[in-house]
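Record type: monomer structure entry
Structure origin: computed from sequence
Chain ID: A
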Amino acid sequence: MARVSGCLRWVFGLLFTITILIVCTAGVFAEDLPPEQPLPPSAPSEITAAGIEETRASVAWSPVPGATHYTVWVDGQRWTGSSCTGAEIKGLQPYTEYTVYVTASNDSGESGPSPSVTFKTLPPVPGTPIPSIKAVDSAGATIEWPALPPSQYVKQYRIYVDGQFVADIDAKEGIQVAQLTNLETGDHYVTVAGVNENREGPMSQPLHFVVRAVPEPTGVTVANRGNDWVIVSWDKQVDIFKYRVFLDGELVGETREQSYLIKGLEPDTEYQIGVVAVSEDGNESLSAELTVKTSSTPPDVSLSGIIDPVYGYVPDVLPGMLVVFAIGGAIKIARTGKYALGGRQLLRWL
């Protein structure tokens, strides 16, 4: 029994020693091994663009596990970086389209690109129009102004009368024109603002005008006419500065008189003539309309057209004309001879 007990103690001691050696050796090896490296992150997803302005925009995306840094790419170019799930992109061009994607990275590397998002920056805020009053009539006014620069991408012009919005006018090239109608008599103020996809720009300086009732001309009639001209006349009016004359809706001239000559017309042609009275402050009356027709073209008149018919009678009257000339010549000679001979008879003198 004593021998068996001693063997068991020896076996247990050996096992304990082996266990201690295994544990110590594992600890040494574990300290010598490098730490486990993480894998590169996956690509971000759910990228969105917001806060778009003229030269900047913001992008955001969902977080990626294991990512420590994100890079924002604009049109294929590395643009900016962020350690969070969003970034602001600056230094963009106004009214320009951009495509953006994001990559994630850590110490092990960089992911592939995320799904891209495309957006367009806003145009610059419109400048201030400079309108002017073109004409004022008894019910409204006509205003005009130069178009704002094309780089402002103006879509419309917004018209305000007496502080109230009245209309949006589509933008076009060149001079912009707006008709203000159905206004009551009295003082009025008009302002204009440009509008684009960004917003409405600043309003122009207010323009003041006065609507007064100006009576339209009366007694408009045709004083005379020809095959290519017409003289139109009308009654005299009080407090009228001038008159505007229109031919088929187009202004052909102005006058302070009560008549006007329109030239350069076509023969035997009907025209619509309008006469508008204008007061000294620029208010205009309604147009007094008149329809007139030029006369037909007269037949051609030439020298041969007059001489040829006369020469047709010459053979018939020539003998008679010769006799008349002969008798007249003889009488003249007789009278001359009589006076020269002091009263003697002509035959004796001969």
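Annotation 1: The CA atoms of residues 98 and 118 lie 6 Å apart.
Annotation 2: Residues 221-293 form a domain with the Immunoglobulin-like fold (CATH 2.60.40.10).
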